[in-house]
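for the recovery benchmark. tokens below, seq after
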């Protein structure tokens, strides 16, 4: 028997590898990891508030917490710190799936056609929301957002607020909702339609600082983003649209703050 034949025999009798096959987390796995991801984001955001509270030497009472929650600089830093926290948790969850980070979250650039279509749909939805707000006699922007912007402007941190709301928040929330949650739930018994509904509901629940009227708008935007995520297979598309939506809302709030 030749050396080559010995080598072939050795390969044939070798036990198969025990490495796990790449797999997407399904409904239960995605839901449980979703809690971990949300917890990581929450800890990252609360850490900023806790640090400011500790360095200021203030007491943990309701009045102090209300003041901190409306401080533009603190809110902006809190939102920004939620990004690295959730990215770290996402890295762990996706690494265990043995699928690349980019592929799992569908971090593919959209086509120009999908980008233009998405922007057009978002503009139409925003105009519709404004019309409904006007007819219902509602304010165009949540009152607490005006207060947050005023404090950020007075502290010279308006740029930080724009960075937080138009960059950090869209990346954090879209990677979480339309990236991770949608991916796992869409490949479970929920299928894409159910995943769009549920991920939109979770994303809406992350904005409980708004009243029911604005929560309805958030849910409608979530449905649009979910559908576009499904059609384009691109989470970057929803990140871009989310950033544009927040930028428009920020500019609107600046205008309201300057005229109030």
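predicted aa per position
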């Amino acid at each position: 028997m030749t050396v080559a034949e010995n080598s072939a025999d050795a390969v044939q009798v070798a036990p198969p590898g025990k490495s796990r096959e790449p797999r997407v987390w399904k409904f239960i796995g995605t839901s449980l990891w979703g809690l971990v991801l949300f917890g990581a984001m929450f800890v990252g955001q609360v850490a900023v508030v806790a640090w400011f509270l500790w360095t200021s030497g203030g007491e943990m009472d309701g009045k102090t917490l209300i003041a901190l929650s409306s401080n533009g600089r603190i809110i902006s830093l809190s939102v920004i710190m939620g990004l690295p926290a959730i990215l770290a948790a996402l890295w762990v969850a996706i690494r265990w799936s043995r699928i690349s980070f980019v592929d799992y979250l569908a971090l593919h650039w959209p086509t120009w056609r999908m980008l233009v279509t998405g922007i057009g749909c978002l503009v139409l939805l925003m105009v519709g929301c404004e019309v409904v707000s006007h007819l219902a006699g509602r304010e165009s922007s949540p009152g607490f957002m005006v207060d947050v912007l005023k404090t950020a402007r007075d502290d010279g941190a308006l740029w930080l607020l724009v960075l937080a709301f138009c960059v950090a928040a869209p990346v954090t929330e879209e990677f979480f909702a339309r990236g991770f949650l949608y991916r796992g739930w869409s490949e479970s018994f929920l299928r894409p339609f159910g995943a769009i509904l549920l991920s939109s509901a979770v994303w809406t629940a992350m904005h409980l600082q708004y009243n029911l009227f604005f929560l309805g708008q958030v849910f409608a935007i979530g449905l649009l983003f979910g559908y576009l995520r499904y059609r384009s297979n691109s989470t970057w598309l929803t990140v871009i649209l989310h950033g544009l939506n927040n930028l428009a809302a920020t500019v609107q709030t600046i205008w309201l703050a300057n005229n109030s």
